[in-house]
């Protein structure tokens, strides 16, 4: 066993690293002065007396009075037994404290098990950072399909949604976008990446709300606050199959009546030409 491992084991038994180093230095000779222990153990001179006094108090060393006080190590078998005894007492005290804590908390725990929130499957988010994190978590949870109504304001714009690209490549993904995405080159380039990754995209003039449906189980939808400014967004997450299934019917109706990417792009170019 090397010196570092020995010091590590002694610290696990309850010594500080300074105490462990001082004790392993003491065992190498019948007795040492404090200065000698400091040199042997590589400890600061200003700390050595405190360290040696603590070893004496713990029963791992003894001091020998005289013109120059010297210190001697207690035999290792006795020193280790004293450390183990101290740890056993600590463990026994912790077990008693743990039992008292269990007794204190158990009534509240039992009462809590009988209480259920009738709306615990509904989650409301308003912080943009929390919305981004929850959306990323929902995307990672996809097992079969993801259906999306995408419209501004974006929590994560299409051109920044790298995790969504990975999901699109490995799962059934359908999205409906508002044709206004063609007004921003960066956004439409992001949409094109999703289409190239395998997304079935459709485009419509207007979407009533932002919507994500995962595996006919989880729904995430967002609504702009009609009273606050246009960027104020409330996101609701509902884990309820019945709601997910009925919203999927609505999604499918909108998707089937939408334009493909090429059709929407041609219509956009035509409209821009006519209004130019």
| Topology-level CATH name of the largest domain | Endonuclease, Chain A
Main β-sheet: number of strands, strand sense, barrel status?
Answer: 7 strands, mixed
Low-confidence stretches: none
Helix-strand string: HHEHHEEHEHEHEHEEEEHH
Under the CATH scheme, the architecture of the largest domain is 2-Layer Sandwich
Give an overview in words.
With 276 residues, the protein is of the alpha+beta class. The chain has two domains: 77 residues, Winged helix-like DNA-binding domain superfamily/Winged helix DNA-binding domain (Arc Repressor Mutant, subunit A, Orthogonal Bundle); 154 residues, 2-Layer Sandwich (Endonuclease, Chain A), CATH 3.30.870.10. The chain contains ten helices and ten strands. It has a seven-stranded mixed beta sheet, with helices on both faces. α7 links the parallel β5 and β6.
Secondary-structure map:
Elements (H helix, E strand, L loop, with lengths): L2 H10 L4 H10 L5 E2 H8 L3 H13 L3 E4 L5 E4 L2 H38 L8 E4 L2 H13 L4 E6 L11 H9 L1 E7 L6 H13 L2 E5 L5 E5 L3 E7 L8 E7 L1 H16 L4 H15 L1
Parallel strand pairs: 5-6, 6-7
Antiparallel strand pairs: 1-3, 2-3, 4-10, 5-8, 8-9, 9-10
